[in-house]
Design brief:
Length: 396
């Protein structure tokens, strides 16, 4: 579907399309041993070739530092975000929290978008606060106005655009520019776009994080996260933190994510096309008050989305006209093709009721009805529309 300028840019393999680069990434014979795929190298113990290599800087001396399978996955993921550096961790949430651990310290102040994913907020409120760091939430429509919130002690600005439940698009370049002028590190949770349709590092962000659990792996069968940066110094700090925490994904999980990532670009095109078709149909439905989808011209974030994104994923919100909880439950329970589940990005469509889990410190958005989030999977959109049509009758 029509979208903003192509931000796929140049990866390590030059100007080729992302689908081509993802097909050919991580195919070095050292990683594949002649197969098409990398080996699944399970290792804790690593045998070095000679005593002189035991303490070689940067040498691979222990399984926690990753194996050939991890190297292959990092290679491919770096292509998605046009990143110079990539680290893999066990979950998307860990990818979100590691930049805080790396850059905040006792007495520090961090700025976090008020629409940020609940568990990331919970980490700030529960754990970061115990370490003596202050979290201040900001309205993500703030743009360049973020400058007024930056203090001498501000160490990190964390943003999710669009918010994965309320779908506001932020002026990320303006926030990045203000942060850079004051030497504050910026991190973007880029999970909604799957990394395909949005390149935070190219828009001036220092760090991009991704829950591979969602679109990148695409199979709804693995938990994984990735952290991307271009600056060597920033990445060195992130890597130190990862080493200090002692985290590393299993080789089997790394393999599973890579297997999914090969088809990411094609899947995202399908998620996008189907979701826009379903969103437009819902927008015209008499039981729907509003659709929250940045690719719709009527959406408040549409202009910024056109400017900074090259497409939209399959995740968006709808506001029902009915306000009775029982009716909301009846609608959700009547769905046959949409499972009720707290994830997205997989091949299967999902729905959740958002209001009970919407956490805000500033203003809670007033939509005038219950907010439902839909994740549009790889089913035929006509079948999904038919399913929604019959389930919406439960609201009558
Ligand atoms: C925007 C966003 N960031 C991070 C995560 C965390 O990912 P994981 O479940 O892999 O920890 C999620 C999961 O739903 C998410 O929606």
């Amino acid at each position: 579907m029509a979208s903003g300028p192509d931000k796929s840019g140049e990866g390590k393999q030059g100007k080729r399309a992302l689908s081509t680069r993802l097909t050919h990434a991580a195919r070095d014979r050292k990683l594949t041993q002649g197969g098409v795929n990398p080996v699944v190298q399970r290792a804790s113990t690593v045998l070095v070739e000679s005593a002189s290599k035991l303490f070689e800087p940067g040498g691979w001396t222990y399984g926690r530092h990753g194996t050939a399978t991890h190297a292959a996955l990092k290679d491919a993921l770096a292509e998605i975000e046009n990143a110079d550096h990539c680290a893999i961790v066990e979950s998307g949430l860990l990818a979100c929290t590691i930049p805080f651990i790396a850059f905040a310290q006792a007495g520090a102040h961090v700025l976090v978008g008020d629409n940020t994913y609940g568990p990331t907020r919970r980490f700030c409120d529960r754990t970061l606060s115990r370490w003596g760091c202050e979290t201040e939430y900001f309205d993500t429509t703030i743009g360049a106005g973020i400058e007024a919130l930056i203090r001498p002690t501000t160490k990190l600005i964390f943003l999710e655009s669009p918010g994965s439940m309320t779908f506001e698009i932020a002026d990320a370049p303006a926030i990045a520019t203000a942060a850079k002028a004051k030497g504050v590190v910026t991190t973007m949770d880029n999970t909604w776009s799957g990394g395909v349709f949005h390149k935070p590092l190219s828009l001036g962000f220092d760090i991009s994080v991704q829950a591979n659990t969602k679109y990148v792996s695409g199979g709804a069968d693995v938990l994984s996260g990735a952290i991307f940066a271009n600056s060597e110094a920033l990445f060195a700090r992130l890597k130190e933190t990862i080493a200090d925490l002692g985290v590393n994904t299993s080789a089997d999980d790394a393999y599973t994510v890579l297997r999914g990532a090969r088809s990411l670009a094609m899947r995202m095109d399908r998620h996008q096309a189907s979701a826009v078709e379903v969103a437009r149909w819902l927008d015209a439905h008499p039981s729907i008050r509003r659709v929250l989808h940045p690719a719709l011209e009527s959406d408040p974030g549409h202009a910024l989305w056109r400017r900074d994104f090259s497409g939209a994923s399959g995740l968006f919100g709808i506001v029902l006209k009915s306000s009775e909880t029982l009716q909301v439950h009846a609608f959700l329970d009547a769905l046959e093709l949409f499972g009720l589940g707290f994830s997205y990005g997989g091949f299967e469509s999902l729905a959740i009721y958002c209001d009970p889990q919407l956490k805000r410190n500033l203003t809670k958005p007033a939509y005038g009805g219950p907010l439902i989030r839909l994740s549009i999977g790889l089913e035929d959109p006509a079948d999904l529309i038919a399913d929604l049509d019959q389930a919406l009758k439960a609201l009558d």
